[in-house]
Amino acid sequence: MPLSERVYHCPCCLLVIDRDLNAARNIKALGLQSVGLSLEAPRLEAGE
Fold first, then answer.
1. Which CA distances in Å does 10 have to 15, 19, 30, 41, 46?
2. What is the pLDDT of residues 5-33, one digit of tens each?
3. Is the Cβ–Cβ distance between 29 and 20 less than 8 Å?
4. In the chain, what are the domain boundaries?
5. Model confidence pTM above 0.70
6. Distance of CA 12 to the CA centre of its chain
7. Above pLDDT 70, what percent of the chain?
8. Residue pair 28/20 in contact by the 8 Å Cβ criterion
9. Predicted pLDDT of residue 2
10. Torsion-angle region of residue 36: left (phi > 0), alpha (psi -120 to 50) or beta?
């Protein structure tokens, strides 16, 4: 992606996002993954 392109367009899911925000999210996800965590919130079962 050239530096002049500021917006990322995902061809798979059609997401359109600022490229710097997308990069920050990817870096955060990789950092969390490296310590065994994820970006997803834990799912609660009914009654919890």
1. 5, 11, 19, 23, 35
2. 999 998 999 999 999 999 999 999 999 99
3. no
4. 1-34
5. no
6. 14
7. 88
8. no
9. 87
10. left
